[in-house]
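QA checklist item 7 of 12: single-chain prediction sanity check.
[x] sequence parsed
[x] length recorded as 288
[x] structure emitted
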Amino acid sequence: MRGIAPRRTTIEDYERRILRAQRLLEQRLDEAITPVELAEAAHFSLHHFHRVFRAQLGETVMQHVRRLRLERAARRMRASEERILEIALEAGYESHEAFTRAFVDRFGISPSEFRDQPSARLLEWETKRDDAVKAEVSVKTLPALRVAFRRHRGGYHEVPALWRPMMQWAAERGLTAQPAPFYGVCPDDPDVTAEEHLRFDACVVVGNDFTADESVSIAEIPAGTYAVGIHVGPFDRLAETYLDVIGRWFPKSGYELAPEAVVEHYLDDPSIVPPGKLRTEVCVRIAE
């Protein structure tokens, strides 16, 4: 009697399946999603799902959700004048006191102290702003985009290694024939999120009829109104344009910064255009 051949699994397969659960949590962060729903999304048994999730991300599901909510709250406090109690309620806490305890446990200071404490990156930028690049900024209403993506977790200096196989994958499927098809999505703020938890999604635009294979996931870059700064230069200096947009342009614009993902749109092909002349749109969401 022949035995049943075991299913081949790889690290990449586990990462992709856990990413499905992460995406579900991210899309429904304010909802009470059951562990069973998450396990089903990742195609794991409930018991195995919890073990793999913690092994992959270094935190339990509840720790992951709590961290994402607190980090979103921290970004909102820096970006808006919204009352701390309202931010606490949005983060799932029933009282100011409970939110403050959780916030102090995560960041080491109270929410009000955090709000009064300037961003470390902006403080550094302020010391150099007279010599810093002044980006050309415009307000644009951008459509939603369906994208195939691969995710990197960790320091942004490791992102180039993600792009090489992603660009090859896109070229093999004819996706690079469309104009400027590549986008980067940065959901986290390095002033708020520890480096090991930073997320970066390397994206390429795909059509509605495109079906993902096992090496990518599908997502949507949301439509909305964005402040779009034009960065000219190498990718490793994109943060300078982002800081210019939020540090110089936003305070004078009359608009409020939304605590949402920053979107990078790469207008030029780095295999053709020299690093010093590469153009990238740095798109920062404006609060509705």
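[x] summary fact logged: Residues 4-8 have pLDDT under 50 and may be disordered.
[ ] second reviewer sign-off
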